[in-house]
Amino acid sequence: MVTAPSATRPARAGRVRMSPRRRALVTRRVQYAVLLVLAVVLVAVTDWARIGDVFFNPDSLGQILPKLPHAAFNTVIYTLAAFSIGLALGLVLALMRLSAVKVYRVIATGYIEFFRGIPALLVVFAFGYALPAAFEVRFDSVVLQIGLALGVVSAAYIAETLRAGIQAVPKGQVEAARSLGMSSGATLVHVVIPQAFRIVLPPLTNEIVLLLKDTSLVFGLGLFVTDFELTKVGRAALSEADGGMTSLLAVGITYLLLTIPLSSLTRWLERTTGYKGHV
């Protein structure tokens, strides 16, 4: 009766001797082994000749490469136009949200909830087709049309970011400014808003990245070839060239060349300002 526990003791002792650090090391090695096996299987079963024809067709790449610089320039211009409109309108909405006048707060809240609750693509189509037909207006500038379409949506998100930044400014700063004789308006302009912008710099940079990608939503508008942004160029090349997905791969890499520096800027701002990408 006393031999059974002694027979199982070595196995139990072996499990007990494995420290948490060694167990974590073994777990990592098992995961690396599984990933290595999956990678080997993927390499073995993939038809690399077909992948090369579909994604790396030199003829298709030669057709789309000359168009990418101008399309990237248009993408950046549309992004800056939308961000300028969104920032200006978002600041007004943020101040309305913090106003002591209830009507302002209700209007700003309704605007923010409305444009955050509907797809941005609907707003783009509205500015492209519905509003010109309903109000008989015509946008002479494509940049203004796209800037307004994307800017009014972006303003709803920027307003909430700025509102959080304004509320994050220490009240002691406001009290110190008022004790020096500054009016409430001067305190807001010269003390509160500059500090709020410093706080929300990382999330505002994130908003630029999102806007840059949202410019792809204008693919549904009737644009001249000279007004094409990156996605529109990729889609046109996809239907014209024989290179399969090569054009989309080239467009995707161009987007990454634009967004990766902005993402790096966001991380740098987070480190230097001490504030994260959200407030």
Outline the fold blueprint.
Blueprint: H1 3-17, H2 20-45, H3 48-55, H4 58-64, H5 68-97, H6 102-117, H7 120-135, H8 142-168, H9 171-179, H10 184-199, H11 201-214, H12 230-240, H13 246-273
Helix pairs in contact: 5-6, 5-8, 5-11, 6-8, 7-8, 8-10, 8-11, 9-10, 11-13, 12-13
Describe this structure in words.
The protein has 279 residues and is mostly helical. The protein is built from 13 helices and no strands. The protein has helices at 3-17, 20-45, 48-55, 58-64, 68-97, 102-117, 120-135, 142-168, 171-179, 184-199, 201-214, 230-240, 246-273. The model has no long low-confidence stretch (mean pLDDT 85).
Briefly summarize what is shown:
With about 280 residues, the chain is mainly alpha-helical. The chain has helices at about 5-15, 20-45, 50-55, 60-65, 70-95, 100-115, 120-135, 140-170, 170-180, 185-200, 200-215, 230-240, 245-275.
Tally of individual helices: 13
- Helix and strand pattern: HHHHHHHHHHHHH
Number of strands: 0
End-to-end separation in angstroms reads: 67 Å
Query: Which geometry do the CA atoms define?
Result: flat
Poorly predicted tracts of residues:
none
How many strands, what sense, and barrel or not for the largest sheet?
A: none
**SS-derived structural category:** mainly alpha
Average the pLDDT over all residues and give the rounded result: 85
Strand content: under 5%
Our Rg estimate from Cα atoms comes to: 28 Å
Helix content: over 70%
